[in-house]
Design a protein that fits this description.
- The chain is an alpha+beta fold.
- Helices cover about 40% and strands about 10% of the residues.
- It contains ten helices and ten strands.
- Strand 5 (about 145) and strand 6 (about 150-155) form a beta hairpin.
- Helix 3 (about 100-120) crosses helix 5 (about 190-210).
- The relative contact order is 0.12.
């Protein structure tokens, strides 16, 4: 069999990390613990159906000439754990009375637009892949995920987590897992997995900034702002500006993300801490983007995109590998100027060598 034709089940990637759901599942209040436990059980089952790798040599969409317009379809799971569900909205349809459907449609479009306008990429696979999403998944399902083929959104419990279509960066985060799936194919374990997660946070944040017309200094650099319920002591799931400060709540616990290698977390859980240690490359991107100023999707985002799609980033890349490639990509595109200087300084600040 041709190795390029071999298909491997893609990684199951969720926006809410397992360590958060595990904390909630051990709460004394059944109203908190039970939905979290069901979500954990669901996510664990999905993960066992997938190997801890992404798709090497996954064939792009065979949809003919890639369009500059998205092709979006939204389905409604009707609170069952089935996909895709009932088709409720196509690309050319007018907005519906269901705000969740409309937000999913808009978020898919915002993601398509950033990748097309900033990097000339036509959909997730760069070949016009249709963008599908399922909403109203499960009963009080407290997560959103990319399953290798589509986005799936839970409604949350309306207490700790609100509707998962609310933050556009959550949609962008999950769809970027698809971009990684079709490009660098970073293995979902340890540092390569943390890079996989960080790529999704970086471009999720850029999608939000682009859609809001924000410069690097205007952005909040939060992932999932607006997702946490009103009684949660926190502002988001993660902070790229200040990893470890997104939440500190009696029920959710405290944000465990480190900002530097000095506090790198060694753990066997969460595939080696992929959602935790991603704070380190996240913070490096924030430092580069704010040092360069202007629109973060331009120079800083371009460098990250060049590395992701350039063919030199291996599936098992470590932080040092990625850092060195960003410096090389900056030098190749911009020469030995402000971009390279910002990168060297940022990676030094987070404790990741570039050579």
């Amino acid at each position: 069999m041709d190795a390029n034709a071999r298909r491997v089940n893609p990684v199951f990637c969720t926006i809410v990390p397992p360590h958060v759901l595990d904390k909630l599942a051990r709460a004394d209040d059944p109203a908190i613990a039970d939905p979290a436990a069901r979500t954990l059980e669901h996510d664990a089952l999905q993960r066992t159906r997938r190997r801890i790798t992404t798709v090497r040599g996954l064939a792009p969409s065979v949809s003919g000439i890639a369009s500059d317009k998205p092709n979006r379809t939204i389905y409604d799971a009707q609170h069952r754990e089935t996909v895709p569900g009932r088709k409720v909205h196509s690309e050319s349809d007018e907005p519906t009375k269901d705000a969740t459907v409309n937000r999913a449609h808009a978020g898919l479009g915002a993601t398509f637009e950033l990748f097309l306008s900033a990097y000339g990429r036509r959909s997730i696979d760069d070949s016009g892949l249709p963008l599908n999403a399922t909403v109203h998944y499960g009963e009080k399902y407290g997560n959103a995920f990319w399953d290798g083929e589509r986005m799936v959104f839970g409604d949350g419990d309306n207490d700790l987590f609100l509707d998962f279509t609310l933050p556009v960066d959550v949609i962008g985060h999950e769809l970027t897992h698809g971009v990684t799936q079709y490009t660098a194919n970073l293995e979902y374990f340890s540092q390569s997995g943390a890079l996989n997660e960080s790529m999704s946070d970086v471009f999720g944040s850029l999608i939000k900034q682009y859609s809001l017309g924000q410069s690097a200094d205007q952005a909040d650099w939060l992932i999932g702002a607006g997702l946490l319920g009103p009684n949660v002591t926190g502002v988001a799931l993660r902070s790229m500006k200040e990893p470890g400060t997104a939440y500190d709540d009696d029920v959710l616990g405290k944000d465990p993300q480190p900002a530097t290698m000095e506090d790198y977390v060694k753990t066997g859980r969460d595939n080696g801490g992929v959602h935790i240690n991603s704070g380190i490359p996240n913070h490096a991107f924030y430092l580069v983007a704010t040092a360069l100023g202007g629109s973060a999707w331009e120079r800083a985002g371009q460098i990250w995109y060049d590395v992701l799609t350039g063919g030199e980033l291996t599936t098992t890349a470590q932080f040092t590998d990625f850092a060195a490639l960003t410096v090389a990509a900056a030098r190749s595109r911009y020469g030995e100027g402000a971009e390279q200087e910002a990168l060297l300084k940022a990676w030094s600040q987070v404790g990741v060598p570039t050579n």
